[in-house]
Specification:
The protein is an alpha/beta fold and about 260 residues long. It is built from 14 helices and seven strands. The radius of gyration is 18 Å and the shape is globular. The mean pLDDT is about 95.
Length: about 260
């Protein structure tokens, strides 16, 4: 898996213009975390702090952990009251048993050593603390209609995603137990323009700024394939052929997945 710090340093400042905390996802993270006032929480791979800040605005005390200095600089400029920490999930420079809970949103596929990361997270969490993970599984991603237009890009994206079975096994090995899961289906009003945000709004992908904020397009994709795929996508939209393609990939597997786990 590619180093997240290099990956997101390369994406640059435009990321934050298309990636915003989605209210529904924020509320789901809050519900799964079941936070309490006065407790301390950690956002792992916080990026520019979108969900860190959204949850802090609900009255929670958060630390944000991020290996990209460029991303963290943006986060600091947006909220100087939050404790921002430049570090990777695999090496957290914080005390044992410090946090009452944690979130990891669209980040675990960037970790270079998932077992080491969860071991570190287990160390910094208090007994019985929860971690809430928001991710996509390879099985879910094979159901994205993006595979039709950008097959090589999706192949690379899928390869870096840990399966639910891998996540479950590593959580158990590192001292967690899964307490709940919930499928997430892309909503038409989604505010956070991550990879499959355009599921129901394919025209989003025709916007270069949207693509710049998606790591698959900005770092994993072949320029020629993207150009061909976008041309075909635009043609299919204009000729009313896109809906037939979308229906071929219609499924009930969910587009992303919330996983809640608790430290044993």
């Amino acid at each position: 898996m590619r180093d997240r710090s290099i990956l997101y340093d390369n994406i640059g400042l435009g990321y934050n213009s298309t990636r915003q905390a989605d209210p529904f996802i924020t509320e789901k993270l809050y519900q799964f975390l079941s936070p309490q006032p006065g407790k301390l929480y950690l956002d792992i791979g916080c990026g520019t702090g979108n969900y860190t800040i959204a949850l802090a605005n609900k009255g929670l005390n958060f630390f944000g952990l991020e290996p990209s200095e460029k991303m963290l600089d943006i986060a600091r400029s947006r909220n100087s009251q939050i404790n921002w920490v430049l570090a990777k999930a695999e090496q957290i420079p914080l005390n044992d048993n410090l946090f009452d809970g944690a979130i990891a949103t669209l980040t675990i596929h960037h970790w270079t050593d998932i077992k080491k990361a969860f071991t570190e997270i287990h160390r910094v969490l208090k007994s019985s603390a929860k971690i809430v993970i928001f991710t996509a599984t390879p099985g879910q991603m094979k159901g994205y209609w993006l595979n039709h237009y950008f097959p090589k890009m999706l192949e690379g994206s899928i390869l870096q995603m840990p399966s639910f079975r891998v996540i479950e096994n590593v959580l158990i090995e590192t001292g967690f137990v899964i307490t709940g899961t919930e499928k997430y289906f892309i909503a038409d009003d989604l505010k956070d323009h991550f990879l499959y945000a355009g599921k129901n709004r394919p025209g989003l992908y025709l916007d270069e700024e949207i693509r710049k904020g998606i790591s698959s397009f900005s770092t994993l994709a072949n320029a020629d394939e993207v150009s061909r795929g976008l041309s075909q996508l635009e043609s299919d939209i204009n000729l009313n052929k896109f809906e037939d393609i979308r229906m071929e990939f219609d499924n009930d597997s969910g587009d992303y997945l919330f996983i809640s786990a608790q430290k044993c």
